[in-house]
Amino acid sequence: MTLIECVPNVSEGRRLKVVDRMASALRSVVGVRLLDSSSDPSHNRSVFTMIGDADALEEAVLALYGCAAAEIDMRRHRGVHPRFGAVDVVPFVPLAGTSMDACVALAKRVGQTLADRFSVPIFLYAEAASATNRRHLADIRRGQFEGLAVKMTDSGWTPDFGPSRPHPTLGACAVGARRLLVAYNVNLATTRIDVATAIAAAIRESNGGLPGVKAIGVALPERGIVQVSVNLTDHTRTSLVDVWNAVKARAAQHGVEAVESEIVGLAPVAALRGASPGELQLTHFTPQTVLEYHLAALDADTPPRA
Fold first, then answer.
1. CA distances in angstroms from 1 to 65, 102, 266, 303, listed in the order given
2. How far separated are the first and last CA of the chain, in Å rounded?
3. Partner of 95 for a Cys bridge, out of 3, 60, 73, 235, CB 3.0 to 4.6 A?
């Protein structure tokens, strides 16, 4: 059995009926299992986690993009999370029996098809990147949707597939192949965005912080708090408790309390080593938050081979 995980991020997290329609489009594809759907109104973003083989996932991504194209206009989109497209990013992650090379090939194939079908510029990133300046998603997305037209006049930012200008309503899309990533947020009991930004800068690997950590500070004004939003790209070097303790300690230096944390999507069980969900003050945590829970269920549903 070969399995690939796909975790598309879509620039809609407020109109839940729209999110439901996108989720239904994914569920309708034979051979795809939608494991998780997570939406955040402040980020105005939804994250879908699904697994399947290459052909089924390609069909699912096309179905999702078709639904998003009918529902999302980036000229009207507002949210605290950086973004440059209606379907902002589509990563493929190798699981059982699948190589990274296979995910790179799939990313290229899906990217080309999206560009052809929707006339949207596609940038390949991470292991599928065509240039060193495209390996990191933050570099591709820098300037966001509003700055994309000017950015793409630079020959260094010609897309890998599709037109050399943004789609007027869909923007652009990053498609890539990468290892497992854990999206993890820590919420702070303050409205001071400077505190969240300073903590994010201190814990980032690029600034000499924790290995495998990317982080930004964002405000959640409707809740009266701020958030340190983290992408943990290597949970074998840094666990969630390492991130939680680092954020909590630095917040205390500012006289601020870390009040809760959350996993967006799914996480491998190894990322939770060293602490219980209660110790991390994880909200909405269930056994279904753990990736291996779904893989075990899949194995149980798979009939033995003759």
1. 27, 14, 21, 12
2. 14
3. 3
Q: In what order do the strands lie in the sheet with 225-232?
A: 213-220, 225-232, 182-188, 258-264
- Residue 292 maps to a domain: no
Residues 217, 223, 229: CA angle, nearest 5 degrees: 25
The CA distance from 1 to 111, in Å, is 25
| Model confidence at 1: pLDDT above 80 | no
Based on the domain organization, do 23 and 164 belong to the same domain? yes
The model scores a pTM over 0.90: yes
Q: Which helix (H) or strand (E) holds 57?
A: helix 54-71
Inter-CA distances, 21 with 24, 38, 235, Å? 5, 14, 33
Question: Residues 95, 207: one domain?
Answer: no
Residues 225 and 281 in one domain: yes
Angle between helices 100-118 and 54-71 (to 10 degrees): 30
Domains: count for the chain: 2
286: exposed, middle or buried (C-beta count within 10 Å: 0-12, 13-18, 19+)? Answer: exposed
Cα separation, 228 vs 89, in Å, equals 20
Rounded distance between C-alpha atoms, residue 210 and residue 305, angstroms: 44
Q: Which residues are catalytic?
A: 81
The Cα–Cα gap between 193 and 201 comes to 12
Containing structural domain, residue 276: 182-286
The token duo for 71 is: 């529902």
At 166, which CATH number? 3.30.990.10
Q: What is the Cα–Cα distance from 202 to 237, expressed in whole angstroms? A: 17
Q: What is the mean pLDDT of the chain?
A: 95
- Structure letter (DSSP) for residue 153: T
